[in-house]
Give the backbone structure.
Amino acid sequence: AQSVTQLGSHVSVSEGALVLLRCNYSSSVPPYLFWYVQYPNQGLQLLLKYTSAATLVKGINGFEAEFKKSETSFHLTKPSAHMSDAAEYFCAVSGSGGSNYKLTFGKGTLLTVNP
Amino acid sequence: DAMVIQNPRYQVTQFGKPVTLSCSQTLNHNVMYWYQQKSSQAPKLLFHYYDKDFNNEADTPDNFQSRRPNTSFCFLDIRSPGLGDAAMYLCATSREKLYNEQFFGPGTRLTVL
């Protein structure tokens, strides 16, 4: 079984400030981890993914995330927030084999960016 | 550009009136998924196809059905929509099951009157 917990349903930052969105996972097998972004009335767009290679993963739009096995975490960061980053962010986990291939999503974190 | 396309983007139907949502893909992926996403919630997997092999989630209501006539197209049929079925419906694809990077379409927002 696998699960994802996103701490903070709503995060608000100022433009230019650090963005930190938290994600903790639980998985009975080595996980694959994903961050998706969703803009209003749109589908989900993949930001980045961890698939057991480098633990620091760089994604699109200046985002990155670090896989920490000891902490079962995969937090998303961006050094400097931009107004266009305002969206909903979902962390997701899937297993690396067997029947655990399905994506399990967290409940999402809504990021607002203040001018 | 290769992509996942959903039509229509917005659909209004009446309580109990059958409705069909469409998804097509130009990625030539083997797996196609349907998710239901209600406001401020995570997407919930309804079912998926691996090629022609249909896989239903245990808690998907019988009111929801799906068809995949070929690799490119997949349909979601809601036989008798209720008010509780109003949601965003997302189609996604992945090349294979194991390396599960999913590509999402823009979604269809369903309103039930």
About this structure: The CA atoms of residues 29 and 95 of chain B lie 4 Å apart. Chain B has a mean pLDDT of 93. Chain B touches chain A at residues 4, 6, 40-43, 45, 88, 90, 92, 97-107, 109 (CB under 8 Å). Chain B is about 0% helix and 50% strand.
